Amino acid sequence: MAEKRDYYEVLGVAKSAGADEIKKAYRQAAIKFHPDKNPGDKAAEEKFKEAAEAYDVLSNADKRARYDQFGHAGMSGGFGASGGPGGAGGAYGAGGFTMEDIFRNFGDIFGGHFGGAFTGGGYGDYMGGMGGMGGYGGGRRVNRGSDLRVKVRLTLKEIAHGTTKKLKINKMVPCDKCGGTGAKDKDSYKTCPTCGGSGMETRSVNTFLGRAQTTQVCHECGGEGKVITAPCDKCRGEGITRAEEVVEIRIPAGVGEGMQLTVSGKGNAARHGGVNGDLLVLIEEERNPQLQRDGGDLLHTLNITVPTALLGGTAEVPTIDGKAKITIEAGTQAGKVLRLKGKGLPEINGYGTGDILVVIDIVVPAKLSADERKAIEGLDGKGAFAKAADGSATGPGAKSSQNIFERMRSFFR
Ligand SMILES: [Zn+2]
Ligand SMILES: [Zn+2]
């Protein structure tokens, strides 16, 4: 295969070209190389396809960014280039763009002249209602159910250890009466008379260029190649009914607010026994007033009394699985951080676990009884307090302990 040309070069626009400019360039190329203008000209057809492919990428912000960064390598399959619901998955695979893909996209470019016929009929309803068709490389199409979204609220404990949730979900499921086929019984089908079972039909479409031949998904059977002659009376021929289903979702440890998990195949069932959509699970975190999450670490503010700060002692701090006792050393300063190693949350990729960081705050009482006041005043004036406060104390901690005493003094003033 020949080296792929640069998409900007194909459309003859600068790398900085805006959306309108790109659209205009594509429109010109499409008209110039349109098969109807160049009957039997293979080179023109290739140019036509090349322009369509270039436009598909450059008109889409995500794809364009990826192309700008990685070039053609960023466009090949497996790089997240799936077409989305109803799209042609991996459009740039070996076969490249099909004419059908191109005409499908003409709707936006030519204001519906081309695309109109394609999406106007039952197929359009299909797309909206049921999640549309998944493209499987041409030929007969398989219906795909739409994706479902649910939110799951998790506690820190569930996030720390991972959990399994059973959710009752209201969704489309295969009809139990017809087994999802939509037909009354096994003889209630016939081969589609319009497309002869191929699922595709060739139609003439009026365009401003004259009449164009386009190959489209068959309007009668929706691409399935067969039609139901007697529909199932429970699902009225759809093959699906609405029901509640309990879905079990395994949530790995270390997930975070806003993450989305995909449970493949647990979304809505598709018409006539197609492929299920996916269940998209959005993670929400229940706020924990005691432990504030910071990535894998958890922050806890521990209030200790002035005597504990001065003399030391023990305190209890909350952890994910209960409480832990920690030792407060004599002379502990406000703002000191004690680290409980490995007591935080695991990384979702399994590498390492965060810590609990205990931030010390010293509570200075707002009111004192007369006795307390006397006791505190008794400490001041001659002893260690006074020395620390006037800066004459020496040794480690003397300087910062001054701050606390300064605060105490100004409070009593
Ligand atoms: Zn058909
Ligand atoms: Zn049924």
Supply the key terms.
413 residues, alpha+beta, HSP40/DNAj peptide-binding domain, 4-stranded mixed beta sheet, 3-stranded mixed beta sheet, 12 helices, disordered C terminus, binds zinc ion
Give a description of the structure:
- Residues 77-95, 111-138, 392-402 and 409-413 have low confidence and may be disordered.
- With 413 residues, the chain is an alpha+beta fold.
- Strand 6 and strand 7 (210-217) form a beta hairpin.
- The strands form seven sheets. Strands 12-13-17-16 form a four-stranded mixed β-sheet. Strands 3-11-10 form a three-stranded mixed β-sheet.
- The chain is 28% helix and 26% strand.
- The protein is built from twelve helices and 17 strands.
- It has helices at residues 7-11, 19-33, 42-58, 61-70, 99-109, 115-120, 122-130, 156-161, 306-311, 370-379, 384-389, 398-412, and strands at 133-134, 142-143, 148-154, 163-174, 189-191, 200-207, 210-217, 226-228, 240-251, 260-263, 279-285, 292-294, 297-305, 313-319, 322-328, 337-340, 356-363.
- Among the domains are: 292-362, Urease metallochaperone UreE, N-terminal domain (HSP40/DNAj peptide-binding domain, Sandwich); 370-412, no CATH class.
- The protein binds zinc ion (2 copies).
- Residues 175, 177-178, 182, 232, 234-235, 239 line the site of one zinc ion (ZN).
